[in-house]
Amino acid sequence: MDLNDSILLVNKRIRNLSPYHLEPEVTAVKLNQNENPYDLPAGIKEEIAEFCRKRPFNRYPNFVPDDLKAALAGYSGVPAEGIIVGNGSNEMLLVLLLALSGQGGNVILCQPTFTVYGLLATGLGAIERTVPLTGGLAFDVSRICETAERFPRSLMVLCSPNNPTGCFLTEADIRAILAVHTGMLVLDQAYVEFGGYSAIPLLTSNPNLIITRTFSKAFSGAGLRLGYMLGTPDMVAHINKIKLPYNINFFSEHVAQVLLGHLDVVAARVKELAARRDSLLSFLRTMPLDAVFDSAANFMIFSCGRKNELFAFLKQKGILVRDVSHYPMLENCLRVNVGSADETAVFEEAVRDFFKVRAA
Ligand SMILES: *Cc1c(COP(=O)(O)O)cnc(C)c1O
Predict the structure, then answer these.
(1) Ligand 1 neighbour 94 (Cβ under 6 A)
(2) What pLDDT, on a 0 to 100 scale, did the predictor assign at position 24?
(3) What is this structure's pTM?
(4) What whole-number distance in Å separates Cα of residue 276 and Cα of residue 298?
(5) Best exposed site among 71, 92, 187, 244 by fewest CB in 10 Å?
(6) Is 188 a pocket residue for ligand 1 (Cβ < 6 Å)?
(7) Domain of 324: which CATH number?
(8) Which of 262, 279, 306 is the last residue of a domain?
């Protein structure tokens, strides 16, 4: 069979998608993926290595990771029956879209936001109903509510704090949306440990709310691929049917449990990174940039008329940030995440250098 002919066998919706792509670049100062700059302490890694040495690799992981779910229940306050653990919260998003959206269904998204939602929705044949952020890149809650009313029973996916902008929804915002929305609301809170409102208290009275979280950011676990969803047990039981069996490997399951036993380490890092985010925001506001946008996460965006030049200048100094200018409304924007104290100092020095501003 001819190659072009075989390619035509791929679902047309998928053929027409542009892939989610990231150049695998490695630089000395890597501030482009919102990762936690701190690896796990060596002592914790030793504990994990010991576990792995003893664990038979020929055996499947637990069918249900009960101990991890119990630990997550203790941490989140959501009963274990309301929790599904996944291979990254991205897997949870896939499972949620499979269960909650479908061909011809409406999926309400704000833009700009995390690319994966639109990619999955379009791939599954759903129709994206877009609510733009405001000109100041905040959530437009009244427009979100209007759209919910216009498309009853649709799936809504919101990200708070939002990637790539850093804006977030307050408790009042989420309550206002839930008051009018008659479909499911999936709330991606991958960055909520760094700031913004945790919607967990709203779960008990809103069975149409599901929250996704991750070990990839606050928990220093991007390499694990571990995320989870929180919801009402009866709802979660249905969603769980479409999840692949054994989606969590024993290593990630174990490491996540170990991390939940060291919440003091995690909390101290989160506190430090949130404080550094605020000082980095203040620093950027002293630079001759066009705009610096507030953020509740461990990253922020800023716009600069000389964006390409600045990106290249930083890269040539071994500093990698994310060019987010291809997102709607983010023309000229770069995103930088909070690194270690040293990395952040190197970044600030380079930005000063670029604008030839002397250190204060
Ligand atoms: C980083 C990130 C995640 C985390 O995804 P994982 O699959 O858990 O690594 C989820 N949502 C958003 C918006 C993110 O930026």
Answers:
(1) no
(2) 80
(3) 0.96
(4) 9
(5) 244
(6) yes
(7) 3.90.1150.10
(8) 262
